[in-house]
Amino acid sequence: DTVGKTITCKAAVAWGPKQELKIEEIEVAPPKAHEVRIKIEFTAVCHTDDYTLSGQDPEGVFPSILGHEGAGVVESVGEGVTNVKPGDHVMPLYIPQCGECKFCKSPKTNLCSKIRESQGKGLMPDGTSRFTCKGQQVFHFMGCSTFSEYTVVADISVAKVNDKAPLDKVCLLGCGVSTGYGAALNTAKVEPGSTCAIWGLGAVGLAVAMGCKAAGASRIIGVDINSSKFDIARKFGCTEFVNPKEYEKPIQDVLIEITDGGLDYTFECIGNVQTMRAALEACHKGWGVSTVIGVAGSGQEISTRPFQLVTGRVWKGTAFGGWKSRDSVPKLVDQYLENKLILDDFITHTSTLNDVNNALHLMHTGESIRSVLKV
Ligand code: APR
Ligand code: ZN
Ligand code: ZN
């Protein structure tokens, strides 16, 4: 029985920027009040893990335990926890839902601010860490830290999901897939019969395509400089493709031509400020809406001529697809179980946590869409 005791287990520790993660024995303290200790079963690898490891993330702190697309089983809970119990199948959520803050009370946003400050510092809400390694404090990451056999998260950062859901698949709903799918459905609110274009056909872009298809879009154009992504993108709903490398003129001009004046909805799923501009300018005059999903490097800025907005194009952005996390993730899991959304086809590689550096490498080189690791 481990309840109330420190657990010694394996984790991938990020000791410093640009260093390979190291599999270490760590200690995980028991959950305090309103905290939950989770046995992580599976985790995927996402660009934000890589971004923070690169040292460019201004909030990045080391040593830390990265990972935020995970799923597992509750081992024990701290005092006052009522939303989950030991044995529950759960997913940690990097955007919590407290239900009480100004943001949670607004139907217009999902950006719960309750623990934003401590989470940004790599700490639990009380300002301390539950992880130690070799006598040294190790920081949390995005309120999740899924690259560990055990983790501790705030109770407002946990969603209980259907026991029947395969955790090696639904872990993808912890970030990229939910983000893209929700961007189409919640943020852009794509309408039946509309035309859409998606920049970047990684996991996020493919999930956007799935959302546009679910919304009944008539044309879904995939835009990627890597044409090898086009085959799989058809499975997710893309109806046609454009590779900007095959054209001399700006890609927005090409798209405006083939869509009789521009698109109803565009999505940027790369994190490049040039393609963000192209996506906005490819929108139809009068009503086109462009949604920024990709995360640009820190310090980057976007630009366009204000005339683009004056003439009715709208620039939007979204985090975690606008989903109110605790309300929505269990429903998305159920949608997967009802075959209403695809997860399996995102997974191009599977391995174990020991292989996490290779999984990061495969993501970096664009070889993988998603790697899922058994923890
Ligand atoms: N024009 C068109 N496509 C591009 C360009 C470009 N200039 N640069 C890159 N791409 C394509 C790549 O070929 C790749 O297919 O964008 C795709 C990005 O996919 P992934 O690297 O797999 O990224 P993904 O996991 O989908 O995340 C997309 O969202 O999470 C944020 O900022 C994060 O950059 C990440 C983005
Ligand atoms: Zn809140
Ligand atoms: Zn992510």
UniProtKB/TrEMBL annotation:
<feature type="domain" description="Alcohol dehydrogenase-like C-terminal">
    <location>
        <begin position="203"/>
        <end position="334"/>
    </location>
</feature>
<dbReference type="GO" id="GO:0005829">
    <property type="term" value="C:cytosol"/>
</dbReference>
<dbReference type="GO" id="GO:0046294">
    <property type="term" value="P:formaldehyde catabolic process"/>
</dbReference>
<keyword id="KW-0560">Oxidoreductase</keyword>
<dbReference type="InterPro" id="IPR011032">
    <property type="entry name" value="GroES-like_sf"/>
</dbReference>
<dbReference type="Pfam" id="PF08240">
    <property type="entry name" value="ADH_N"/>
</dbReference>
<keyword id="KW-0479">Metal-binding</keyword>
<dbReference type="GO" id="GO:0051903">
    <property type="term" value="F:S-(hydroxymethyl)glutathione dehydrogenase [NAD(P)+] activity"/>
</dbReference>
<feature type="domain" description="Alcohol dehydrogenase-like N-terminal">
    <location>
        <begin position="33"/>
        <end position="162"/>
    </location>
</feature>
<keyword id="KW-0862">Zinc</keyword>
<dbReference type="GO" id="GO:0008270">
    <property type="term" value="F:zinc ion binding"/>
</dbReference>
<dbReference type="InterPro" id="IPR002328">
    <property type="entry name" value="ADH_Zn_CS"/>
</dbReference>
<dbReference type="InterPro" id="IPR013154">
    <property type="entry name" value="ADH-like_N"/>
</dbReference>
<dbReference type="Pfam" id="PF00107">
    <property type="entry name" value="ADH_zinc_N"/>
</dbReference>
<comment type="similarity">
    <text>Belongs to the zinc-containing alcohol dehydrogenase family. Class-III subfamily.</text>
</comment>
<protein>
    <recommendedName>
        <fullName>S-(hydroxymethyl)glutathione dehydrogenase</fullName>
        <ecNumber>1.1.1.284</ecNumber>
    </recommendedName>
</protein>
<dbReference type="InterPro" id="IPR013149">
    <property type="entry name" value="ADH-like_C"/>
</dbReference>
<dbReference type="InterPro" id="IPR014183">
    <property type="entry name" value="ADH_3"/>
</dbReference>
<dbReference type="GO" id="GO:0004022">
    <property type="term" value="F:alcohol dehydrogenase (NAD+) activity"/>
</dbReference>
<dbReference type="InterPro" id="IPR036291">
    <property type="entry name" value="NAD(P)-bd_dom_sf"/>
</dbReference>
<keyword id="KW-0520">NAD</keyword>
